[in-house]
Amino acid sequence: MSQSKHHSDFQFLSGNLLVIALLALLGQFSSVQASDLTPSSVLKLINEERLARELAPLKENTILTQAAEAKAKDMLKNGYFSHNSPKGENPWYWLKQSGYSYQYAGENLAINYESAESQHSAWMKSATHQANIVNTKYQETGIAIVSGKMKGESATITVQFFGAPRGALSPQSKPIVSAEVPTLKPVPAVLPASDVMPTTLDRENIIPQGVETPASDSDRGWATPWTKLEQWLAPYQTLIRGLATLLILSVAVAVPAVFVSEAGLILWRHFGIRTKHADSAA
Q1: Which residues have CB under 8 Å from 258's CB, separation 6+?
Q2: CA 20 to 30 Å from 164, out of 4, 20, 115, 274?
């Protein structure tokens, strides 16, 4: 009876340890997925898209990156998600402030995506974003991803500027800007892109024109089960990582201890029974 009970307890403990290990691994997997949104991962997907279409990959430009970071921080600070600020500053204002001299420029925006893949998928489903990503005129890019509070809600904003430096291409038609601005919600969204084609090489003469309308759900590309799970888990990522690490360490210590205990019990029973039989024979 005692031996049967011991094996039953051992099986129960082993089963629980297996469940704990699986939960820990799932927690680690979730945290990896949620931390995948980085400028390098965004650029990697965009250049893969361009190479698949036999287009030259975009090169990182530090001045464009500084402009993107300044724009992203301004949106968080002033509580807006739009190509144009409440003060009327358009995307090209940030390029001018950073000192980037361009012939062609464009801007893609996104908010509250947890992975580069889901954000890239949303951009590629939007005609205006896709047009910027595969535009043959653009040669350089700068990407910034900034997290903080916007109107009391946690927000992660991605700003990407595209550019062709002055003198690299011949200027063509007048400026064209297309901007669709959704109502701010704590869910992933994108703004169909802004792009500009100046009539001259002088940035001062660029006057963007455009229309702002609500973006559709199909363009945003965020109504997928995995994205919803990512959104639900996002506030708990730090806790999940901590628990996952603790559980993995617990499993690493507990599993060997259980097997050592089991082996010791078997040895004790074996030699203990033999000693008892020897005493009885004497």
Answers
A1: 10, 13, 14, 17
A2: 115
- % of residues, the chain, pLDDT over 70: 55
Residue 246, pLDDT score = 79
Q: How many CA atoms lie within 13 A of 270 on its CB side?
A: 6
**Cβ neighbours of 42 (radius 10 Å):** 25
Span 238-264, mean pLDDT?
73
Whole-number Å distance between alpha carbons of 256 and 260 = 6
The yes-or-no verdict on residue 42 having pLDDT over 60 is yes
Judged by DSSP in three states, 184 sits in coil
Distances in Å between the Cα of 45 and the Cα atoms of 41, 51, 165, 251 are: 6, 10, 23, 37
Cβ atoms within 10 Å, residue 32: 11
Which is nearest to 67 in space by CA: 203, 213, 185, 207?
203
Q: Which fold has domain 39-165?
A: Pathogenesis-related Protein p14a (3.40.33)
Residue spans of the domains in the chain: they are 39-165, 227-269
Question: Token pair for residue 276?
Answer: 């008892």
Query: Structure pTM?
Result: 0.55
**Share in percent of the chain as helix, strand, coil (round to 5):** 55, 15, 30
